[in-house]
Amino acid sequence: MTTVIADHVSKKIKRADVLNDISYTFYDKHIYGLSGRNGSGKTMLIRALCGLIYINHGTIKINEKVLHRDISFPSSIGVIIEKTDLLPEYSAFTNLKILSKVKRVASDQDIKSAIERVGLDPTSKMPVRKFSLGMKQRLSIAQAIFEKPEILLLDEPTNAIDKNGVELVRDILVEEKERGALIVIASHNQDDLDILADTVLTVEEGHLVGNDEK
Ligand SMILES: Nc1ncnc2c1ncn2[C@@H]1O[C@H](COP(=O)(O)OP(=O)(O)OP(=O)(O)O)[C@@H](O)[C@H]1O
């Protein structure tokens, strides 16, 4: 079983409380939707859960291991945060191939099938700098899922993606949940939240205020 436990998590930037005493337990085989206005703290929460920022108070435990104490980042995780960095001069396949060398858990076949799954061509030599915004976003999804991670933290995963692509991405995320992934999605797209989320959490001025279990 995979668990991510936020326990009294707070983060201040300058003097502003961007995360304010957040306590919540996330489980596997579940999609959590983060809803909230611009600047409410959704991205900060995602950054905190994947270890990209240090928090000022509280703890985050990934499978009972405390982030920044026992581990520096979760070992089995796929992340999309705005402007996920891709290497613009290389093809889709080469981008994922380079990433795969870090952990060595994905084969070339895993890379190809992830690229195919998001509707891109794994044999294409087109460099990513020539990709449209939507194509880059699709590749970001492939990048997040290709190693079959236990945890997926996705900030606006359907951003810039066309209608057919959005349906494809939603199908992929449901398949990933059924595979057993713990998925957190921040989205302004109400349809994404309605269709995908088993639980919708509302973030307001750094607090988790709503917990709408469907
Ligand atoms: N690098 C930064 N330096 C200072 N403050 C920041 C920084 N990044 C974010 N913040 C502040 O943290 C707060 C939460 O921002 P966050 O990006 O988490 O909001 P969000 O809910 O994801 O918004 P959006 O819906 O626009 O993506 C905001 O008040 C923002 O101004």
UniProtKB/TrEMBL annotation:
Keywords tagged on the record: ATP-binding, Nucleotide-binding
Record carries keyword ATP-binding: yes
One Gene Ontology term of the molecular function aspect: ATP binding
Transmembrane segments: none
Superkingdom in the source lineage: Bacteria
Domain ABC transporter: start-end pairs: 4-214
Protein name: ATP-binding cassette domain-containing protein
